[in-house]
Amino acid sequence: MILFLLEPLSENCSQSNTTKKLKPKKKPSTPILTSDSDAISTKKLPKKPKLQTPTIPLKEIVCNYIQSNSMLHARILCYEPIDFEEFHKQIKTDLNLKITSKELMHCLDDQCITFTLRSRKGAFTSVMRAKRRHK
Q1: Is residue 116 part of a domain?
Q2: Nearest-CA neighbor of 54 among 117, 116, 107, 115?
Q3: Do the beta carbons of residue 86 and residue 112 sit within 8 Å?
Q4: Could you read off the pLDDT of 68-77 as tens digits, one per residue?
Q5: Hey, which of 8-12, 19-23, 39-43, 92-96 has the most confident mean pLDDT?
Q6: How far apart are CA 82 and CA 108, in angstroms?
Q7: Domain limits at 65?
Q8: Number of domains observed in the structure of the chain
Q9: Cα–Cα nearest to 73, from 36, 110, 121, 113
């Protein structure tokens, strides 16, 4: 036969029959993370990595990128114009490089790659209206 001795864990446990009121514990001044707040913090979107400046010439970067994308390469070989804004956005995100649109336009022009620009008529007319007002 095994005997276990049970002892009260604290003084509060041994005085459970008394009518003495216990003071509520003070909350700690530092916030405690709960599982709910941990779940919220994991839902935050990761920060976008900063775009890097290219270390090799832009002409080589563009040539390598076009040759790696077979559909784009075939379109360029058939002299089909590519959408410049879409191409610029795609090359920046895929290669994580900082490329200005002006530099990319010059590079495409130098290689005789045809591209189209979306209509910027709305922005141009607002500038023209502003110039007319000041005359």
Answers
A1: yes
A2: 107
A3: no
A4: 999 999 999 9
A5: 92-96
A6: 10
A7: 58-122
A8: 1
A9: 113
Which pTM value belongs to this model? 0.51
- The answer to whether residue 76 is domain-embedded is yes
For 115, which DSSP code?
Answer: E
Answer yes or no: is 80 within a domain: yes
Whose CA is closest to 111, among 51, 54, 65?
Answer: 65
What local confidence, expressed as pLDDT, does residue 1 receive? 52
Is 18 inside any structural domain? no
80-133 pLDDT tens trace: 999 999 999 999 999 888 889 999 999 999 999 999 998 666 555 555 555 566
43 vs 51: CA distance, rounded Å: 24
Q: Is 81 left (phi over 0), alpha (psi -120 to 50) or beta?
A: beta
